[in-house]
Amino acid sequence: MGILERITKNVDNKYWYPENDTFPVKNRYTAGVAGQKFFQELKDNGKIYGTTCAACKLTFVPAKLFCEQCFAELDDWVDVGTTGILWSWTIAYKNKDDSKKETPTLLAAIRLADGLLVHWLGECSPEDVEIGMPVTAVFKDPGEREGSLLDIGHFKPVIS
Amino acid sequence: MSKKVAIVGLGYSSFRTTSQDVSYREMIFEAATKCYEDAGGVHPQDIDAFVACSEDFMEGISIADEYVPDQLGAVLKPVQSITGDGLQGLASAAMHVLTGELDLVTLSAFSKASNVLHYANVVSYACDPTYVRPLKENPYFIAGLEMNRYLYETGTTEEQCAMVTAKNKGNALFNPTAAYGAKIDVKDVLQSDPLFSPLKYLDKSQDLDGAIVFLLASEEKAYQYTDKPIWIKGLGWATDTPNLDNRLDGMGDAVYARLAAQKAYEMAGITYPRKEIHFAELDDTFSFKELQHLEALNICSRGEAGKLLEQGVFSKNGDFPVNVSGGSLGVGYLHEANGLQRLMEVVLQLRGEAGKRQLDDVETGLAFAWRGIPTATGAAAVLSSRY
Ligand SMILES: [Zn+2]
Q1: CA B234 / ligand 1 centre spacing (Å)
Q2: Which of A43, A159, B49, B363 has the fewest CB within 10 Å, making it most exposed?
Q3: Which residues face A145 on adjacent strands?
Q4: pLDDT tier, A26 (very low <50, low <70, confident <90, very high otherwise)
């Protein structure tokens, strides 16, 4: 251990071990009226939907039931297509337990209309990636989709 | 503010990277005892109300409010819990006094990070269950996205971010409460383990255990407890949307900090923060955050912080010293107590009790805290030794 590291977990001091290494909290979360329809479109039709607030001139992606700016209820559903622009990206070198990933993964925030989706970026290497480039969703086969964010396998650069 | 509120007492437990001998409640007891001693030996029986900051998930307990009273001397007294940073707690405690009904109010926050075995899981639970969590990634990737976007929008460099770490770890060498002081340079940071590019190991602050307690008093009562009251001049706090998908502006800019500071400056009657405030202790959870926050707090314009840092403006001998204490990068990351560590340094500096790192001729200071990934919540406080 060098001068820049410290022991920051009591278990590493070899005095106390947890009985198991799991995090036991489990729960359910309701996707909601807008979430239900958003995921249904993803699963059934391979489409990404947003909802538009005419007053604020904003199209929220993923679709929302209400506008967080003016508080209006939203029911104007828009197919925003499956290609967006790369708003930001990162190479993740660490797993959730802070261990080192065998293969680092590319993660991206993708702008679609006025919203962002966070997802993996694939079929490219870091040298090819630039903020502002167009990227497109690669969907799983219809039979494999479950109505989840993971119905999109990843995004990939649009080759022009 | 129409009426004045003063800080009249300060106490803290020893900050340590592990603390397997004491419970977090015993750490708070130590800090509270020192705080009450510092405030002229006040007995908790004479204190009117108590504000405590904590999170349920962190301590492996639930309904954390019920765990508050005894270690503060608050049994059978009015108690309020704040699920947020210590500076949000400061706002609450100050408002207690501003009601005119309460003269003495205790404020506490703590970190027992060494007991938290899976912090990334706790943070994951703060991410949207349907739009972020399914990726099952370490949620600190959000810090990588935010840093990359900030560098892109402002032209700030990774080297400038690395300089923040070098400065703050260097400052920490003069602070006996700091656990992460070190003499390092930009190269050490750039060559450290990559985490979530462009974020590296030495760009990120590391955990620390500790408890901090303050005592606040009305202006009528302040001088009964201290001859060096520190006056709260302005307070502000703001929360941006929790949805990552609605953070187009908020991914590269600390919008929450901009709004919190505007409110605090307005309340304190400050027009030119860089001139009217003499130093700042502000969030540096990640090195880039110090620069991003300086710009959002209107200490300089957007994209300017990195250049001013290179010119030495934010050094402890510079025109506007930033994180003389060492910040989170040098002292350690105290979770909900981060804001109170910043407040503690501002109070010590304004009292002239900062030891080897004491700044000359400082009268007004700024404390700013951010609640960390994945939040967009910040709180600002302007304090002064002048009434
Ligand atoms: Zn609207």
Answers
A1: 31
A2: A159
A3: none
A4: low
The pTM of the full predicted model, rounded to 2 decimals, is 0.94
- Provide the residue type at B39 as one letter: A
Whether A79 is covered by a domain: the verdict is yes
- Residue A3 resides in a domain: no
Domains in chain B (CATH in brackets) are: 5-117+207-225 (3.40.47.10)
Distance from the Cα of A111 to chain B's closest Cα (Å) equals 8
In a domain, A54, yes or no: yes
- B114: chain A residues, CB-CB within 8 Å: 8-10
Nearest chain A residue to B142 by CA distance is A90
| Six token digits for residue A41 | 């479109």
Residue A5 domain flag:
no
Residue in B120, B202, B206 closest to A8 by CB: B206
Q: Is B24 exposed, middle or buried (0-12, 13-18, 19+ CB in 10 A)?
A: buried
Question: Which residue in chain A has the smallest CA separation from B241?
Answer: A68
Q: Which domain covers residue A75, as residue numbers? A: 25-157
Q: Output phi, psi for B203, to 5 deg.
A: -85, -10
Q: What is the mean pLDDT of residues B168-190?
A: 98
Shortest Cα distance, chain B CAs vs residue A68, angstroms: 8
- Which tens digit of pLDDT belongs to each residue from B350-365? 999 999 999 999 999 9
When divided into structural domains, chain A yields a total of 1
Rounded-to-integer distance, Cα B306 and Cα B199, Å: 16
Residue of A113, A108, A153, A106 lying closest to A135 (CA atoms): A108
